[in-house]
Amino acid sequence: xxxxxxxxxxxSAFASPMVLAARHxxxxxxxxxxxxxxxxxxGPTVLLLGGRSWKVISVDWSKRTVxxxxxxxKGKSRWLGTSRWLSFEVCQAMRRVLLQEADAGLGLSKxxxxxxxxxxxxxxxxxxxxxxxxxxxPSGRHRWWxxxxxxxxxxxxxxxxxxxxxxxxxxxxxxxxxxxxxDIIHSQANDSDIVAFGVKxxxxxxxxxAACLASNLVAAVVxxxxxxxxxLRRIASG
Length: 238
Prior knowledge:
By secondary structure, the protein is an alpha+beta fold. It folds into 2 domains: about 5-70, no CATH class; about 85-238, no CATH class. It is about 35% helix and about 20% strand. It has 8 helices and 10 strands. Strands 2-1-5-4-3 form a 5-stranded mixed beta sheet, with no helix packed on it. Strands 6-7-8-10-9 form a 5-stranded antiparallel beta sheet, with helices on one face. The model has no long low-confidence stretch (mean pLDDT about 80).
């Protein structure tokens, strides 16, 4: 069924992850993690490469190339090893630390204590909407703090669909103003949306041994890794 080259992964201690070649015209700028071009959905994605900001123009997945152009917008660097979502447990632990008293014996330096206080001020400022904390951004958008982990927040973003146009982080989901996120979080995910999400993401994900699996199984594996329905329900229930 397969030549021996297909079984190298079984014998290799290390496998090279998929990366995209970043190009501006004929100039190669470097390489980026595929996750870096998949996070932001509300407008162009801006990356930070070589100390400069670059706007993503298009991605050619078949050639593993992302086309960029310079921009004055603030870019963000996401790279291998940092692109995986934080788990629900880690994000909840972060929340517990933020809610502790300042003199809880954390053994921080003066600088660390000051920075922790600044983050606490940010977290305690939002207003509560059901089981979520709402922060109204200067841009007019809303940031919903969940502390649920990126996979659970991705599941919430999938429920929002076209009305939400959400940006997703490990700790929050950002939407346009007026989107009833505190109500939508209690809804059930649409099966057809999950299937479509899985198929689309499977095309962009280099899954080990994917050649040995049917396409629907590849999509199911990707969905299982990318969407956390269980912990989203825990957040929804408060």
